[in-house]
Specification:
With 186 residues, the protein is of the alpha+beta class. It contains 5 helices and 8 strands, in the order ββαββααββββαα. The structure holds thymidine-5'-phosphate.
Length: 186
């Protein structure tokens, strides 16, 4: 029987983005050339607020407005760097560059002690993944930039990671165009 332990957390209202290669909003914001390999991983913080367009924050903003304290901030900074190291190695092993990703964290109490844990998915929806040799995009940018073959790209990642059998029969859903209903006059 499959089991899953689920913990209820209070989500910290910050998105943590780690970048190894400049692309996406970073290149638009700062005019950096797309595909520039960064000397070391760049950690960015964005406020989780759709109405404001998830604005970029500094550490000082986070502390000034008490979205986190300095211990939480330092802890999560180290955690996202570790997650990046792990994921980079894992993807490199299957011929994929981890360009960047976003994760969120949550707080919970255990034995009266406050703890923080990763509370997010890690998938081609939340990471940028490029083929090592060709730079082919194997992530949600295929949808964002209308490149097509989204499902095939996600399957490619899963097959390379050996978590989807090559013969799996998953296809994109296709819906017929909605037709106008004709109402017969009496
Ligand atoms: P960005 O270049 O658009 O800021 O995105 C950086 C990374 O964060 C990229 O891997 C996509 C991911 N991301 C999300 O998962 N959810 C979001 O809402 C945003 C804005 C980015």
């Amino acid at each position: 029987m499959r089991e899953q332990l689920v913990k209820l957390v209070e989500i910290i209202p910050i998105e943590f983005v780690v970048r190894n290669i400049a692309t996406g909003s970073l290149t638009k914001r700062l005019g950096i050339e797309d595909g520039t390999v960064l000397d070391y991983p760049l950690v960015e913080y964005c406020l989780k607020n759709d109405d404001l367009g998830d604005p970029l924050l500094s550490r000082e903003h986070i502390l000034a407005f008490k979205w986190m304290d300095v211990f939480e901030l330092d802890f999560i900074y180290e955690e996202v760097r570790r997650i990046n190291d792990f994921l980079q190695g894992m993807f490199r092993g299957v011929g994929i560059k981890l360009v960047d990703f976003k994760v969120e964290f949550g707080r919970f109490e255990t034995d009266g002690k406050r703890e923080i844990m990763l509370a997010d998915e890690i998938s081609p929806d939340t990471c940028r993944l490029w083929d090592m040799r060709t730079d082919k995009k194997l992530d949600k940018d295929r949808f964002r930039n209308n490149l097509g073959n989204l499902v095939e790209a996600y399957q490619e990642v899963a097959i390379r990671l050996n978590i989807l059998h090559e013969q799996s029969n998953i296809r994109p859903l296709t819906y017929p165009k909605p037709k106008a209903v004709k109402i017969k006059k009496k």
